[in-house]
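Re: the request from the purification team.
They wanted to know what the chain is likely to look like in 3D before they choose a buffer screen. I agreed to run a prediction and write the result into the notebook, where they can find it.
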Amino acid sequence: MRLNDHERVLCAIYMLRKNARFWWDVVKQTLNAEALVWEEFKAVFNCKYFHPTVLQGKVEEFNNLRQGNMSVTEAIKRFDQLARLVPHLVTDERERVRWMMRMFCPGIATITDAGDQGPQTVAECIDRALRAEFREKENLREQASNNTSGQNLQSNNNNYARNNTRY
């Protein structure tokens, strides 16, 4: 859908809810809302809801975003939330993939990037990362199962040795 500047403003105003709607009702009394263009609306809105200090904090949070203990799905959700606030850093699909790969934990990033070439699209990156996470969890379950089996075998051997020791 293509909108001109004024239509974009009207659409944005229509989408305002709760406190943002109350804020707009006050602001429009001081501005000529009919003559307001998109860039002016964004400036007024961002001044209220995205103070430069807050935005700088979000830029830093985005720069430092790492998957850590989050699942791939949770990390991507947080990535998307922050990427909306820093469009100057995530300018196109290639950059989005690059930043995502940087965010993933090393094991997942390595598997996601494996092959002749790394992921070329965001969809491919997410698909590979989800598969890598699944494999990683499967491997951990298998290792845990093997360790439990090995501990049970060792425990059985110790019990056998204790019960069959003659004094």
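For the purification team: The CA atoms of residues 114 and 128 lie 9 Å apart.
Please add any questions underneath this entry.
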